[in-house]
Specification:
Blueprint lengths: L18 H21 L3 E5 L5 H6 L5 E6 L2 H10 L5 E5 L13 E7 L8 H11 E12 L1 H4 L17 H9 L4 E9 L1 H17 L10 H14 L19 E4 L7 E7 L5
Parallel strand pairs: 1-2, 1-4, 2-3, 4-5
Antiparallel strand pairs: 5-8, 6-7, 6-8
Helix pairs in contact: 1-7
Length: 270
Amino acid sequence: MTHMHTGERLVEESYQSSLEDYVIYLMHLAAYRFAESYTTGKRVLDYGCGTGYGAALVARTAASVCAVDVAKDAIAFAQAKYSAPNLAFTSIAVDGRVPAQNASFDTVLSFQVIEHIHVPDLYLREARRVLAPEGTLLVVTPDRANRLLPGQRPWNRWHVREFNGRSLEALLRRHFSRVEMQRMSGRPELAQVELRRWRKTKWLTLPLTLPIWPDRVRVGFLNIVHAMRPKGAQHQAVRTFPFDLSAIHIAPEALPSLNLVAAASAGLAQ
């Protein structure tokens, strides 16, 4: 990961210079805003915190926030940019092991992370381990139902697997007894920006993202495409746009679906 616009992690300043990036930025912020009712006054783990902007937001009202990531440079960036008495950033090993005892957290946040994980069952097992008995795991991840064609592999080179509502719920139910599924959507002027970006990208990258290609070949193709893109977008000035967080909503039947939002309650797996 670098602290530039790579598509792997969000750096706030790099996502406010174009309309498409601003929509992505708002959706990330909306996830943390949604989480407030689960994090206020709670012990929180941000499990895959990236550059730390969300953990810093949560720390304003949480009892404590432990923010972890496997990318050491992302953690160094977060430590340099954000600080609070109740906020700690820690790098973790690639196996995802969290340096915390069992039942250490009331809430675990997994926002735009599960799609990056090669063995999601191990990741979820660790999230379950560190959750208190009445704790909740919140997961937000792109909805492949609109983002990809049937059978298509992710066109984001950092994504291993993208989920639809059924596949994400089935995965979570292997580890949690109760799973509540919702969707993130937005007003037409916002949602259509993201849908147009997806429609264009999934068709342009289709030859590179067919299921016939091994993952290393798919990623190699996409790395070449990325290297050919114009550079310098991350240096553009921050702009203002005609909508804000109020243009995004989360509900069970929210359409068109941009992100899946799941709340998984700790307990014995079914």
